[in-house]
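Sample entry (311 residues):
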Amino acid sequence: MGQVVWSLLLASTMLIFTVGCAGKNPVTQPAAQMEAIQHNQRGIKAEARGENSMALEYFAEALRVYRSIENSDGIVVALVNSSRVLRTDRDYKNARASVTEAVSLATPRSKLYSEVAFEMALVTLMSGELDNAYEWAGKAVAAEKDSNAGARINLLARILFLKGEVAQAELKSLEALSLNRGEAIQHEEANSLRLLGDILATGNRKIEAAEFYNQALVIDKSLGKSRKISADLRALALLSLAQNYPDQALDYYRRAYDTSSNGGDPEGAAHDLLEMSRIYEMKGEKAQSERKREESDRILKARGTLKRGNP
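Predicted structure, serialized as tokens:
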């Protein structure tokens, strides 16, 4: 369930309270409930702007208010929102703590269970627990009753691919692609296309893989998804290297670097510079290779994330 759907969920939660006694004297929305909803909505907007620290503050406030009125569904929503942002920030320990609490509150029959299971699958996947992630992704698929089945199956397909079950992964990815196109969910359609590119790139179907990556790139550019655009370009760069086209790969990495450095992803930009450095080294252009490596190191040092042994 994406951010837009969470907003709709919050709106529907408001309706539950306001129309429950929709007779002559409709129930007024409780002030605390309104406050929590506003915090959640502000958090979602902050997250969309890339202001994750602010988003977490808003979600924490929403959680505090929901706890004060014992609104279990609201608590679950705030916990999952927090987990998603923490996971994006690679804070897997705290993300897991948030989603684990959400799991304890949402029963399999809850309307929120599919989203909770989906988030748990993502957190366990990021922690490298493939079997655990697969189990939770399956639960998310089974519990989904809305238009998000394509997203759930995308994740299932991705885990199958990582587990080495390539044929099943391709089948599930095609199923997800069909569902996402049917629902006109463009960002998930792009995810399906990118995953199909990854799957086909591992075999002898690299031309088809490039077509899928380019289709994903067109969608991501239309949506203005900077990090997804960078991911598409990096995938095309790797595919170019696999086909022994280093200059083409360099061009893709330059484009990825440009989108990352201007899109608020310095670690991604540093990665692209490092990959360019490696290609220049492979081409025998030592000076260019060293320049790109130094640029990468400067970015990582500024972020406090340099792990190599370079000075």
